[in-house]
Amino acid sequence: MAVPSASLRIMGIGAHPDDLELMCAGTLAKYRSLGHHVTMCHIAGGDRGATSGTRSDVAETRRGEAGSAASLIGADYVNLGVSDGEVDASSEDQKLLVATAIRRARPDVIITHSPGDYMEDHNQASALAFSASFLATLPLYDTGSDPIGAVPALFYMDTMAGLGFQPSEFVDITEQLDTKLAMMRSHASQLTWLEHHDDMDVLGQITTVAAFRGLQSGVRYAEAFVSCNVHLRARTTRLLP
Asked: Which residues contact 195 (CB under 8 A, 6 or more apart)?
């Protein structure tokens, strides 16, 4: 079943600059190729993702990298500036930040982290996307902007390395893999950081996971998702491309 031809507004909400690029950039690129509007939002500034330098300089570098990655597919980009390690779904201030960003983006669909990923910033970002996207519909939740008209559909993206994740839906990104890799290459500081800190070949992992998800779904390369099928979010039509 194809994604509706009417233009959709899509919002990716990740914890750090590069999280969306790692786990759902192929799908975001595919949405854009079909003419849909995409906003890429990172809650944290990435200020602790380096081996040296001041946190403010690191955050500035990472915002620039993320903006360059978003520009490759013509997506809007926003960073909410929370410090790494401090993303907190119980914080009323952070709920307000995320709800405000959601009201500005006005998404039909939100893609965010899977609950239970390997680090707490990811899990808290997931919870913030869930709670703030409901709060953004409430007229008396004051963000200084108009509420959105409906609770957005929500999809959880794959975990790092696909561990502990059982997909319910797949997106064929065979034609978008090169774009996804280019978006990740925009994060030059993180290619170095992740190799140093986690002994991780980022581009190799992206390709390997995409090939594995493609094997599962009968295409060359794919990304995997789970739909959040709760009241007000379940849909009768396929919204992933």
From this structure: 201, 202
Structure tokens at 187: 């994060």
Cα separation, 102 vs 194, whole angstroms: 29
pTM of the entire structure? Answer: 0.96
Residue 239 within a domain: no
Task: Tell me whether residue 31 is in a domain.
Answer: yes
Question: Per the domain annotation, does 232 fall within a domain?
Answer: no
Residue 181: CB partners within 8 Å, gap ≥ 6? Answer: 203, 206, 207
- The residues near 151 (Cβ < 8 Å, ≥ 6 apart) are 133, 134, 137, 232, 233
Total number of domains constituting the chain: 1
CA-based end-to-end distance of the chain: 9
Backbone angles phi, psi at 172, to 5 degrees: -75, 115
Contact 187, 69 (CB under 8 A): yes
Q: Which amino acid is at 25?
A: A
CATH number, domain with residue 116:
3.40.50.10320
**236 φ, ψ to 5°?**
-95, -10
Q: CA 209 to CA 181: how far, in whole Å?
A: 12
From the list 57, 31, 60, 6, the residue with the least C-alpha distance to 155 is 31
User: Per-residue pLDDT tens for 150-187?
Assistant: 999 999 999 998 999 999 999 999 999 999 999 999 99
